[in-house]
Amino acid sequence: MIKLEKIGKSYKADNEWIPVLKNVEMEVNQGDFLAIMGPSGSGKSTLLNLIGFVDRNYEGNYFLEGNIVTSKNDADLSKLRNQRVGFVFQQFNLIETLTIEENVELPLLYDGWSYRETKSKVLELLEKLGIGDKGKKMPKQLSGGQQQRAAIARAIINNPDFILADEPTGALDTQTSNDIMNVFKQLNEEEGVTIILVTHDPTTVKYCNRVVHMQDGILTEEVR
Ligand SMILES: Nc1ncnc2c1ncn2[C@@H]1O[C@H](COP(=O)(O)OP(=O)(O)OP(=O)(O)O)[C@@H](O)[C@H]1O
């Protein structure tokens, strides 16, 4: 599904180019639940942004379903981002001035759906994620775990090919972290949703079926 070949990326600091990703080779298959682990500053978020079509300044080749992504322009990349990827972040990143329902329906509206069509789809998904009664609330009125469920709903509402989750349990207590990881696990096992998770937390890794480690921009896969 995703294939990265010899990916390299550097940032310029004080007139010097600092390599952040070095010759990264990676394949992600449909249905994988993959963890990316590694110390702070090792390049995990840089890699995630590249996989999520946020960044296109890198060396090497990126293939999605066998098609090369590397040479696409910004407009094509933003279309891919809207249709193919769901993002989940540590701080939830819900829009504070919109209700939960409105937050979750946004990706559908961007995709050209009418308000009338989105309603039942949003309500069904909120119900499935255990926050069916929270649709009319504002994000601030929900607990961290409930907000993350809403963010997951927003990430999967338009059936993306894969979810990119950047430390999605980093702001949650242990019990709520486990609840959220179980939501991901259920989506992965029951609906075949492909998930790529950046995490510092070894306890979240037991939910994943593959683990890769990033160290100074070099990616290696753990043999399990
Ligand atoms: N826009 C940028 N300009 C310059 N340097 C950057 C930029 N973004 C990231 N870096 C540098 O690239 C390196 C990798 O950063 P990245 O955010 O990918 O690491 P990370 O593994 O995700 O870290 P963390 O776990 O702390 O989020 C760091 O040294 C960082 O300072």
From TrEMBL:
Pfam families: ABC_tran. InterPro entries: AAA+_ATPase, ABC_transporter-like_ATP-bd, ABC_transporter-like_CS, MacB-like_ATP-bd, P-loop_NTPase. One of its GO terms (biological process) is amino acid transport. It comes from Marinilactibacillus psychrotolerans. GO terms for cellular component: membrane protein complex. Residues 2-223 form the ABC transporter domain. This is ABC transporter ATP-binding protein. SUPFAM superfamilies: P-loop containing nucleoside triphosphate hydrolases.
